[in-house]
Amino acid sequence: MSKKENQNKKNEQLDQFRVQDEGKALTTNQGLKMAEDEFSLKADERGPTLLEDFHMREKITHFDHERIPERVVHARGFAAHGDFELYESLAPYTKAKFLNDTSKKTPVFVRFSTVAGSRGSMELARDVRGFATKFYTEEGNYDLVGNNIPVFFIQDGIKFPDLIHAVKPEPHNEIPQAQSAHDTFWDFVANNQETAHMIMWHMSDRAIPRSFRMMEGFGVNTFRFVNDKGEAFFVKFHWKPVLGVHSTIWDEAVKINGADPDFHRRDLYEAIENGQYPEFELGLQIIKEEDEFNFDFDILDATKIWPEEDVPVKIVGKMTLNRNVDNYFAETEQVAFHPGHVVPGIDFTNDPLLQGRLFSYTDTQLIRLGGPNFHELPINRPLCPFHNNQRDGYGRQTINSSKVAYHKNSLAKNTPEPVSEAEGGYSHYQEKVEGRKVRARSESFKDHFSQAILFWNSMSEVEKEHIINAFSFELGKCKEVSVREQVLEMFSNVSHDLVSAIAGNLGLPVPDKKEINYTKSSPAVSQANTVKRPATRKVGIIAADGFPAELNNVIAELKGANIVPEVISDHQGMVKGVDGTEITADHTFMTAESVLFDAILIVSQEGNTSLFSKEAPEFVKEAYTHYKPIGALKEGASVLKDLDISGQDGVVVDNSEKFIEAVAEARFWNRDGK
Asked: pTM for the full model?
């Protein structure tokens, strides 16, 4: 190939990165058209510039990093691609196009994560789970960056470094990894009582989910919708899993971490590969501006929920995750989320936690991804074009052909230029702001215990027992008795029954009983009230050569209910039935543990004493102690009889229909004994 041919080929490779800015509308790096490029966002014409001015910060930050010099949460995550479909137009509330047009599918990329641990940490740690969604809309990228718990530990973004410093491994010995069960975290809790409500969620089963596919997602902060009439509404975002909200129990979670520390990512990956696409419905809680102060809590306080019984969740669309990533690093590791990546019709509120987040995310991406051009990485690029006067810096891919890189200008006829709001330019909602500049917090943020009480009041008896056990474990790991005592005193403001039980487990005095008159509850926050479906549940079938012919029919019925059966035997490969038919053994007892399955079905026959008298009983017994469904086919019932669990709740013999119903129920908390 000649030198000229080589050059032509190189030019063709570079053409995809060549951008002609002249004559184009001005946008941010996310593809969002801007209505103004001369004035920063201020509290008033002569007031201070506001931290939420994402355009100014992007513009200046990019400039600050345009020269390449000479040559730290949510570390462990897993992600997938998908689509979002809208059920009904939300034009009365927002002018965001992707929330107006029901005929379009919006591509999405979702990253699930833990918070406290490092990248190689265990996935079943007791922790908050990140639930971040990037919508690739025609107006630019919109990021809904949330968690699987609807509230947060703190009320103001300035305290976020303190929280993370406290929950991370202690600096003198780098212990413990991915755990909150240590002195510095609980010392932070006891001395920052705004954490009370979040800690109740954190000590509940919500912090050890069964699957990314079976946990809710929440935007946490209060945002604002703005419609094309300029009318504004307060809004909170919810993702509701179609499979319901389900969790592990603590003993099970600990054992899963040892048996398969990649349990959650494997579960998500395999579900998508098997065509069992995870689905989440988008729900919105909407409050009119005039109703802002009509509640017994401040709607801008991120440590508070809007109880669904007070503000119903409106289901407006569905997200389906239908494609795994091709390359973990290029996609999952390099994706960059930011709550400041918005589109027209979605705006911010004065939620002080949100205000802090609007700064920190861009600042984080700069060091994590090496500079201001993280938006040019393929996973972060918007689908719509973007044009502005930002240049150079680490990782620049765009080849700007214009010599003009400033605003205003005459050489490029003052382009790229801002466009009006009517033409799609982003314009901030003109909220009236007045008052002194102060470092303070509203009096309405000072109630730290009412909703912690509400959460406790909403729990089933089993959930309460789990919360008591979680507190007892976590505080039992604290070395300083004074920390334990401070936490007990703090949560005596929530429930005397709660702290009495914990104190008994820790061998500490019970704090004095406080008068608690708050009786409100919210049934929606209890997992006891969630959807229960058998679909995608994993059933471990214990079988060996000589299995009864009926097993093939049972496996077909399980698959018909969209259940995933996996066979465990004394060897892998083909297992032959009594009628000569064969099934594949996926596991032996060396490669499988009962905690990796949602239910167990034992299929036995006379004569195979080794498999069914030594290994299978322990396997079944552990599943039983975790309250899971247990089934038996033919002589397999003898194992249940030997374990003395026949006839107990969720124990089914020779009835595939009832066994499938038991798999849907998932747990049987009323069993006698453990």
From this structure: 0.92
